[in-house]
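Quarterly update, task 2.4: xanthosine-5'-monophosphate-bound model.
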Amino acid sequence: MKTHEMILILDFGSQYTQLIARRVREAHVYCEIVPFNADLSAYSDRKIAGYILSGGPSSLKDPDAPRLDRDFFEGSVPILGLCYGMQLLADLLGGKLVRSEHREYGRSVFEVEDNGKIFEGVKNSSQVWMSHGDSIVDLPSGFRAIGKTESLATAAIADEKRHIYGLQFHPEVHHTTEGRKILDNFLFRICSVRGDWTTESFIEESIAAIRTQVGKCPVVLGVSGGVDSTVAAVLLDKALGKQLHAVFVNNGVLRKNEYDEVIGTLNTLGVNLYPVDASSLFLERLAGVEDPERKRKIIGNTFIDVFEAEADKIGGVEFLAQGTLYPDVIESVSFKGPSATIKSHHNVGGLKDRMRLKLVEPLRELFKDEVRELGRVLDIPNEFIGRHPFPGPGLAVRILGEVTKERCDLLREVDAIFIEQLHKHGIYDDIWQAFAVLLPVRTVGVMGDERTYEHVVALRAVTSVDGMTADWAQIPNEILAEISNLVIRNVKGVNRIVYDISSKPPATIEWE
Ligand code: XMP
């Protein structure tokens, strides 16, 4: 958002950097994250109201610790350094640090010694979430110590003349009880931002930006029924109307009734929709394939074929829209967790190059929760916005072994019962993702006097904040028992249900 005042967050590798950005945006202040060594001249035409230096795992005592140029501190824009960020600024401005014997990490009681602007209205004593390896023993000139903890005499510093502040704790985590207040003080009292970045203003500015970018050209968008592509479709529809062509492909591995339901919702929302039922083509190409990565590739490539054929029919297309979100865009020191590379995620980026299209990415500045909020303001029904994530390769990576129509149909029935029960018991929204997995083994059972030899289905439900780590969901036993009974009674071909009690890591959320 070019016109907005913004906060720039320099990332030194803290696991909390994204959280800092979310807290700033919760205050309706636009912000972006860049690696600490980014070329800041790219922001020279932006109204930067303040900088936040994130924490990070390094120690300034290490010769290859990440640093900044001293010139960075010469400007008049306010700076807040957190944890490593505070030590870095103290070090660069002439203070002295010593390596602590123990790395302190976790809860601590913080005492304000001098309120100033940053601690205005903040309680004198409150809980904070500390993290430090080194301690400041000599302050740089112009600075004062403004707070301490039991084990650390210099836990907060300020040079009010130059508007530079440092905190040895994380105001962005909720364990720091006065954190919200402190960040607000930095934003509103020190950086003097207005806080006028709202969903409504985002919509207005995006519509204008999309129109300027694409002019009169037709734009294609692949929709999946997921939150991101649905919100992108509705936003683009507002900007472009019939100039937007949203293609929805049935890849044969969608959930029960999903194809019809998504068509229904997008039609109601007025999106110019092109549904394509290519399920037979996908299933033909998947026949006999057991390897998960090959399944993903086949589905990705077939999607591109079908999409391209559809775009050819539309004709004259120059732009491809995508529902890319901010976490996919941030070039960061720390965020790309291992799951990004363990599985080749369903990536249709190949489309852009193959069809020589330019990209339109209206959500690329937003976090997931901001996309949900945007969806609400755009009047997308709640049940759509709160849907669990569903992977691009769909049921194909939940059917271990070969994917056939019969197996898909069986899994669809189990999955539908599972999800319906979670809704019925009011726990769907507490769960990040829940689904059934068809295992490639059969087990013995009894039904009446008969011996049976049928499929085993695993149920998987996890809680998570971002899918990068996850815990198995502790669904009450009575609910699991009810689901198991319902499935075995109603789905022919299943005689055993197991519940997956592994967390991520070391397991992943999906089984393939
Ligand atoms: P894992 O299984 O890696 O999943 O713990 C993390 C999140 O990513 C989703 N996932 C995928 N999404 N294409 C996608 O679009 C894929 O190939 C894919 N594999 C996993 C998974 O459902 C979970 O939300």
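Highlight for this quarter: Residues 4 and 500 are 46 Å apart (CA to CA).
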